[in-house]
Design goal:
Helix content: under 10%
Strand order of the largest sheet: 2-10-9-4-5-6
Oligomer: single chain
Number of helices: 0
Number of strands: 10
Length: 124
């Protein structure tokens, strides 16, 4: 069974930084793309970033480019998201998820196994 456990996050002022981690198990971590997806209050899921199996390719939503960095450690089956220069609109619960390829839309928590997410709150 797929298990994804997100950690990190917290509260920070605008312009601050936070980092997230996600430990995956129950699947072959180094053979799948890994993504971060977020859900703002009362909004649908929004894709944020994806990293390829070997970490050589990364993809970001436009609002995250230049501010967020996705990375992975396959030996530790862990995914990371470093978030800098945070904005109030980054406030959301952040989830990690595996996929067979790049997927920028159509995420649905009713499909597959999801973790509990990590809350990020950006507020002055």
């Amino acid at each position: 069974q797929v298990q994804l456990v997100e950690s990190g996050g917290g509260s920070v002022q605008p312009g601050g930084s936070l980092s997230l981690s996600c430990v995956g198990s129950g699947f072959t971590f180094n053979r799948v793309h890994m993504s971060w997806i977020r859900q703002r209050p009362n909004k649908p899921l929004e894709w944020v970033a994806t990293i390829a199996e070997d970490g050589q390719a990364t993809y970001y939503v436009d609002s995250a480019k230049g501010r967020f960095t996705i990375s992975r450690d396959n030996a530790k089956t862990t995914l990371y998201l470093q978030m800098n220069n945070l904005r109030s609109e980054d406030t959301a619960k952040y989830y990690c998820k595996e996929s067979s390829g790049l997927q920028t839309k159509g995420w649905d928590k009713r499909l597959g196994d999801w973790g509990q997410g990590a809350q990020v709150t950006v507020s002055s």
